[in-house]
Amino acid sequence: MLKCGRIRYTNDLPIFAAFDEGVIQYPGTLHEDVPTRLNEMLLSGELDLAPISAFAWARNAERLALLPDLCIGARDEVVSVVLVSQTPPALLDNTQIFVTQESASGRNLLRVLLERRYCIAPSYVEDAAPIERARRGFPALLIGDGAIDAIEEFPRSQVYDLGTLWHEWTGQQTVFAVWAARREIVDERNEEVRACMDALTDALTWSKRNMATVIAGAQRRFERAPGFYEDYYEKLNFTFHAAARSGLAAYCRELYAIGAIPQAPLVAPEVTDAIAR
């Protein structure tokens, strides 16, 4: 049985709710954690397959096989990856920005936007509680449910959605998380990898037909205003289709341009006959 991961945010529920509800059985174990921890666990061998930061895959593409069908991203506004700043992003040159320790993709997308779109060079400081820094007036990057909390707390004029900033600049979608497995797992346990990916795509199909149940589960985790999760999940994209792959490829090229990765990997899923639904 493969050791697999899942992301500890409500943004993954449209993929995992069917397992939570017991209507589909997942053919592996599931460990829930924040993206940066899942990245570490997959690379260290503690996990065999997981949704990981798109940045982590791009940086380690020689070790990690990109899997098909699924991702977590957005066509435009992503909602759950935001910069909170009293100063517009273009004016943050030589400024200290506090960044969440939970994100690799979001942190490096922020770098790309500030260094490439706005041509500025701030400094970045990891912080365990960036929302507290934001409350004290410092620029801060937040992801996941903490980012949603920030949207509800701070004036809209101080909250910058990174998905929107990226789409305005490039016309591309964002991809923050991809599914990946270590190459030796794909080679040695290929059928198990396929079974896990098929179960995940089945679960996403179930969620699309049972969104009220998914939203009820999200409300149990983090209660939001009525209608919030309906709007939120509509904005997210979970299918690793051509537009998402194009967005990820553009992100990889920009990561290479700022020196964040040694080369821009080819964005091509390597287990090609998993069933996309």
UniProtKB/TrEMBL annotation:
<keyword id="KW-0474">Menaquinone biosynthesis</keyword>
<dbReference type="GO" id="GO:0016829">
    <property type="term" value="F:lyase activity"/>
</dbReference>
<dbReference type="InterPro" id="IPR003773">
    <property type="entry name" value="Menaquinone_biosynth"/>
</dbReference>
<protein>
    <recommendedName>
        <fullName>Chorismate dehydratase</fullName>
    </recommendedName>
</protein>
<dbReference type="InterPro" id="IPR030868">
    <property type="entry name" value="MqnA"/>
</dbReference>
<keyword id="KW-0456">Lyase</keyword>
<dbReference type="GO" id="GO:0009234">
    <property type="term" value="P:menaquinone biosynthetic process"/>
</dbReference>
<dbReference type="Pfam" id="PF02621">
    <property type="entry name" value="VitK2_biosynth"/>
</dbReference>
